[in-house]
Amino acid sequence: MDSASRFQRPRHFAVWRACCTLAVLVASTELWSPIAASGDSGHLRGSGQAANSLLQPHGAARELASEQSAGCPTPMVDMEKDRYQCVVWRKVCVDQNVIVSFDPEVHPKTSMGTIPTLNVTEIMYNIPSKYGIGDRYRKGSALRFPALYVRPSNDMEEEPELQDPHFSSCTLPILMFAHYPYNAAETFRYIFEKLVTLQEAGFFDRRVTLVPGVPPGTRVPSYTKFWYGSLSDRDVVSLSELSARRPADTPSNATWEGRHIRCFERMMGCRIRYDRYGLRFYNAGQHVARHYMPQYLSQSAAFEERLWQTRQVRLPSDPSVFKLVFISRNADQSAVGRTILNEAELVQRCNEAAGADLPPAAWGVPYKKFFCFPHTFGESQLMDVWLMRRVDGVLGMHGAGLTNVLYMKPGGSAVEVRPYGFSGRESWANRYARFKMSSMAEEPWPVFWYGIDTFNASLSEPGMFEKDDKPHYSKFRVIKARDRHVRITWPSLRHQLLNMAAVARTHDRYMSLRLSGSFYITDDVQPAEAPGLDPHVNKARQRNFTDPDAERQLAVQIPISQQNLDLAATPDRLAT
Ligand SMILES: *[C@@H]1O[C@H](CO)[C@@H](O)[C@H](O)[C@H]1NC(C)=O
Ligand SMILES: *[C@@H]1O[C@H](CO)[C@@H](O)[C@H](O)[C@H]1NC(C)=O
Ligand SMILES: *[C@@H]1O[C@H](CO)[C@@H](O)[C@H](O)[C@H]1NC(C)=O
Ligand SMILES: *[C@@H]1O[C@H](CO)[C@@H](O)[C@H](O)[C@H]1NC(C)=O
């Protein structure tokens, strides 16, 4: 396809511009010949198409862009950087989730071409539920997306806007589909991280409008809006909202026109696959933290006040205090499961730790004391980022909350706790937080994963879906086990507190604990994983630890990362 050539005849273009109704398009088909139809016109790819690969209006269309809305920026997409065979539509309107093409190159009235489609019908989602992930329902998991409907415009358009479309050159929406849009941890890992990597590679700039794929009529989750918001200067919007029948003067920050327009010179659709591209999870978390830094710093005082009002917590700024935040669940979340039943007792024990429960001076680490406190994540994402920049570690039950560790300064730690029946030995638990913090693409790892798996059955209690056990609830044993409440033993918490203090934000020290197996324990401080089973480190070097104190002694012989400790002790500030 040669999309540049169609704009190389200004006279014809002027005709089109003056009266770009479908009727005129149809009446003047000779305008568009001799443009060859292309069956693959939706894919602007390949090195031979360098001129086309920058997806911006060409030639006269550029004039149109500046004339139409003076001063509006032009979104930029470089199709050479596309990894996912994204589809490009030209001259389309969106109307009630339908994509309506006016592109003469692929319109049945002017061409033998085929309108590009995006096959989304094998994409899965778990039914959104106030109880969290819908995979707890037998028929609520792995639901399939309906097909995305793309059709040519016709003479029976109901909407006046589509009877006389004016295509925006300023706004370029990109539909982004991937599996499990209502699982926060999956959203981060299956798609958001890849979008950060793609943007850094130059695929799309901040001027595009990001349209996350969700089933028609359902909301884009707040975490998706927050994360995608770090990649675009326009509001993140669902296709339902973008394509809604509303007055065109309705204000909107999703478009550069500032109002609800629905017809675009260019629009794209991508199906992001789960492959080996990217996998730079910490990088993506840091991207979010950097982007929101001006905002969270400006609200610092309000966040401090809120910590005090909700939890009577004042965060010590003293770097000799090791700060560990517990991912605490609100009443609704706790009703479902995954509560740390003895949270208050553990927080108190941590804060009263003395003697042999504290890092010995001989270790030469900066920490003299521990400070533990609970925080409910997800209520203000901005506050969560702010908080994570100020703590040394986070502890929580298996779940998306642990994704917050990726906002931390380098050398931060996460302790993941799993209920009885849901350890990494017998389930997929290791695929989430541990996987994200152990990416081969980010060695040496900037943040460290520690685990406590519950093996003593009497330390866990069933969650709501296990207790009620209705016929339409999931039959999978591990799905029920995942939601069990847990009592964490003090010896296991003490062990990980001392481990994190000994490591002192130093990767090589962490690796020493990792190779010995003492980074990942059971409730009674035994190895949770046999040597050779850690897929993320050299199998030949994995050992069985017997004495946890001896392992920490070994770790503290390794030189400390003063750089990471200095960064942690220095408050975030904006670059000047
Ligand atoms: C969409 O993709 C699925 C799975 O790859 C395939 O089975 C189906 O036939 C495709 N549908 C269309 C319309 O191409
Ligand atoms: C658009 O953004 C401005 C500035 O942040 C805000 O005041 C306005 O309410 C937003 N409008 C809409 C429709 O979201
Ligand atoms: C399991 O936990 C219970 C409750 O804390 C405790 O009484 C019991 O000794 C534990 N059993 C083992 C084998 O550690
Ligand atoms: C490691 O220790 C566990 C018990 O703690 C034992 O069952 C296992 O055989 C040991 N494995 C090796 C390779 O030493």
Q: In what range is the share of β-strand residues?
A: 5-15%
Q: Low-confidence parts lasting 5 or more residues at pLDDT below 50?
A: 1-52, 57-68
Rg: 27 Å
Q: What sort of overall outline do the alpha carbons produce when their principal axes are compared?
A: elongated
Helix content: 25-40%
Number of helices: 20
**Count of strand segments:** 16
Distance between the termini: 47 Å
Give the strand order, joined by hyphens, for the main sheet: 5-2-1-8-6-7
Largest sheet: 6 strands, mixed
Write out the distinct hetero groups bound to the structure: 2-acetamido-2-deoxy-beta-D-glucopyranose
Q: Could you tell me the mean pLDDT?
A: 89
Q: What kind of oligomer do you see?
A: single chain
Class by SSE composition: alpha/beta
Structure description:
The chain is an alpha/beta fold and 576 residues long. Helix content is 29%, strand content 14%. It has helices at 10-18, 22-27, 50-53, 59-68, 160-163, 184-200, 222-228, 239-242, 281-298, 300-311, 331-336, 343-351, 381-388, 433-436, 464-468, 477-482, 490-503, 507-516, 548-555, 562-569, and strands at 87-95, 98-101, 124-125, 143-144, 149-152, 173-177, 209-212, 263-271, 321-327, 369-375, 393-397, 412-418, 447-453, 460-461, 485-486, 520-522. The protein has a six-stranded mixed sheet. Strands 10-9-11-12-13-16 form a six-stranded parallel sheet. It has a two-stranded antiparallel ribbon with strand order 3-4. Helix 6 packs parallel to helix 7 and helix 17 (490-503) packs parallel to helix 19 (548-555). Bound molecules: 2-acetamido-2-deoxy-beta-D-glucopyranose (NAG) (4 copies). One 2-acetamido-2-deoxy-beta-D-glucopyranose is lined by residues 526-527, 530-531, 544.
